[in-house]
Amino acid sequence: MKTFSxxxxxxxxxxxxxxxxxxxxxxxxxQIAHRLRGxxxxxxxxxxxxxxxxxxxxxxxxxxxxxxxxxxxxxRYSGYVGGLKETTLxxxxxxxxxxxxxxxxxxxxPRNSLGRAMLKKLKIYAxxxxxxxxxxxxxxxxxx
Length: 144
Prior knowledge:
With 144 residues, this protein is α/β, with parallel strands linked by helices. It has 5 helices and 6 strands, in the order E-H-E-H-E-E-H-H-H-E-E.
């Protein structure tokens, strides 16, 4: 019996909608990363991008445990002396709530061109509306 190795014609991508309201950030990000990689499919292969498209709505209503709202910080560096900027999670949720979930999912994907291709299949929106109704995304209920 031969080992099955999927080819691009074997890939069957679907569209799913996830409501992030009252979901915990890390748990939601890990389940989204699992779906983006395609690890839930029997034809999963490490060297291929065979995951699904995920549309996340209501990401501004995400929650975190503990004191992360004030303690968790996001850093960026301009490259100049004294150019290190820091932003707390509460400030980031107030200004750019999409970046909070995007940053969490990006850290759980491979750090190569394959991971960047997987991240392009993630669409995040702050409100409850999204422009992907033509793709007929199915609602996805996550276990936790």
